[in-house]
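A common beginner's mistake is to predict each chain separately and then try to dock the pieces by hand. The better habit, illustrated here, is to supply every component at once so that their relative placement is modeled jointly.
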Amino acid sequence: MKKYLEILKKCPLFDRIEEDRLLTVLDCLAAKVISFDKKYTIMAEGNAAKYIGIMLSGSAQIVQIDYYGNRSILSGIGPTEMFAEAFACAEVGAVPVSVIANEPCDVMLINCDRILHTCRNNCGFHQQLIFNLMKDLATKTILFHQKIEITSKRTTRDKLMAYLMFQAKKAGSHRFSIPFDRQELADYLEVDRSGLSAEIGKLRREGVLESHKKNFDLL
Amino acid sequence: MKKYLEILKKCPLFDRIEEDRLLTVLDCLAAKVISFDKKYTIMAEGNAAKYIGIMLSGSAQIVQIDYYGNRSILSGIGPTEMFAEAFACAEVGAVPVSVIANEPCDVMLINCDRILHTCRNNCGFHQQLIFNLMKDLATKTILFHQKIEITSKRTTRDKLMAYLMFQAKKAGSHRFSIPFDRQELADYLEVDRSGLSAEIGKLRREGVLESHKKNFDLL
DNA sequence: CTCCATTTGTTGAAAATTCAACAGAAATTC
DNA sequence: GAATTTCTGTTGAATTTTCAACAAATGGAG
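With all components supplied together, the output reads:
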């Protein structure tokens, strides 16, 4: 567990938990670590929603696959980030999404009950964890607002531009790279991949942007 | 303030706060009540995100208006429900949405700082309020998941059917009524109103559903 | 380096959405 | 209760997306 301390220190769940107490906390929470290979399913839609996930290394995506096989990417998850926390906290029965590994990754799983309901040792840090969870959930809600703001646009072009603007703002520069390949970006924007490629080509010819793979430059 | 106690008891923020302490709590939080007429703006996009809102009577909608004037409805708000809590809790500068009154309504506003940061009187209920906020934010996150699941469908028909299925499930019956008129439903589903009307007509002729205004019956 | 699998860009046809305009129904106002 | 405003459904044309198929470019494995 020790080797993950550097990552865990940066996880929003453990904000303001002193490093020298972190191991004790993890013990009290009965945290466990599981490794997954690329493309493996970390959580499957329909699974019991008991666990909060923390990505320790590697990356994954939160996806929904509908009826016809259309994939919708809700978000990407990188090291220090949490996932499935809303389903665990809201105590809904099952997760309505799947979490799929992008690459080999290590994941920490914590049974949410251990956080929400004070343990018999009365460890005293539960209040801080609950506060941190609240902050995290508020942040996630805002990310969803952004995704909805982007995907509520009616054309591929407008969705793409809205997404790129957000990314530029986040990067603090007109040059930035995105965490998605073309198919993934299409699944995040909820549009057709080939139409997306065509639109990027058109924007390039119009001199609105330059792009090479995952790198973009808004002119 | 007293006349709102019955409503406030049912607000998730005050879950497990005893009724006879509620007035004290409201006082400590410096809660205030403001009334709005139909169509009035309760919060405007860009306003400081300091306050958590609680709808006491009447109803409102959370909307985003883009560049071209397209309205996107994020959700509807009825009595006992909270709004803007994510922006206040995440301590982002400004609210990225507007809240518009559907009808005359009374709204309680609470400065979020008063909840998050324990007051000097050390009232002791802040922990419960933070826990309640966490629960509420988790629930809101799930509602956004549902909206994304619905709007990520590619056709008006699929969006509409996904929405109606959720409503039927929520109502626990194949007969139910929805909280939106046609234009509002279109703005929630992020589709064209006339196309939506056409699709409802088609589904009716196909015998998939019956509908009269806001009332639906899935056959 | 070569082969193979994956990713990206392009195209044209089919399908669906959006847009604008209008008419009838319903609700509200005075 | 008459007049006016709002809401709903319908239509056809223009725009846009989706779908399928393919070729070029890229990247990795052996």
